[in-house]
Amino acid sequence: MSPVLSSSTMGIRAQRRPVSPTTAGLFPDCPDNVSPMQVIRDLAPVADQRSSISDRATPDCPPASSAPHGTQSHAMGPVRNVAAAPQERAHARLVGIARLAASSLPAETRRNSAEKPEYFVLPVKSILNRCDSNRVPFEWTINPYRGCEFACKYCYARYTHEYMELDGSEFEKKIYVKKDAATLLAHDVSRKYSYTSEKSGGERADHIAIGTATDPYQPAEREYGVTRACLEELAKRDGLSISIITKSNQVVRDIDVLQRIALRSDLAIDITITTLRARLARLLEPRAPRPDLRLAAVKQLSEAGLAVGVSASPLIPGITDRDGDLEAVAAAAREAGAQWFFSGVLFLMPASAKQFLPFVREKFPRLANQYEQWYAKNGYAPEDYRKKASERVARIREKFGFASRPWIDAKRKPPFAQLPLAWDAASLAQQVDRMQSCAAG
Q: Could you tell me the domains of the chain?
């Protein structure tokens, strides 16, 4: 019987921390705009990612309204669709990222499918975002898009659409393409990035995690290329610490630029594979590539000399935690050339629980009561379950000889020559020789 049905955990309840009811205290007030929910005829192409920062304006807020400050009303000011906001917020003025999103013009697309999401061009001020939480081992994040078409039922990042006054259910329906990403990234790295991370006591460079709240290789990347543009910029730098996480085999398209990055910086690539069962994967991750395609990407990246591992997160109680299932993912990952493996138990933000719990009731009714007890008022599974899952992952890593994720414990190296994280001793020796030659002049 699955661990999720264990009677020892029945009755465990905890208070869920509610999402802030408004973004007014998180973002600056911005001028009036027009909501993308309205009909907008002018399509906005994504600007050339290589253009100069000096020749274009990229503010977080649209141009100021001619109306005096403080005179906006429901009749004059922008209001997000009522269904997406609580009653008390239905008529509130939008501020910050919500106002910016509401003014974003539709992006040109070649896709004709009736099921395609809506794309918008989001003019942003920065692409490198600071992460001050002590609960994560990185200092910076890059998310080339807001929203993700893969529509994973459990996705924790749905809450990010709430900052734009959009319902979490629209996370896969409205995709925002960040404008001028590479230009902004060049400016951000030069101005913000540190090669002596405070978290490491100066022992390593700040770590940049790409894809923490959106998949950088979702279908939008084929058209807009924001991820590729960012990688091209990072490839010009020495001594960075970078990781990428994705569910898409599209990452192999960028092997050339990834190899260039790995020669000069620490680079780790994580491919997420939650289950090897294709039908279950399609149910949980409706528009993501099949598990076998992701494993093929792991193999191709590994054979290209890149440091790659597999994430089996989230481990979904009663659904992907059957005896042997997690072990099968790990075995397949090792065979494909993965160098590390990790998994964490499902965590549900309120916006995610709102989508996932009804999904469980419909597709896995026998688990519905247990999920209600575990997750209705708490984002985490019970501690006992999480502890057992952690011990299980530790045994798996030991059995298959997986290493730790290299970007967590990596030490800072001289920026003129970075050793790629690889298992091939001969390759490492060649890199050492090149580093010594570089040091000699």
A: 21-439 (3.20.20.70)
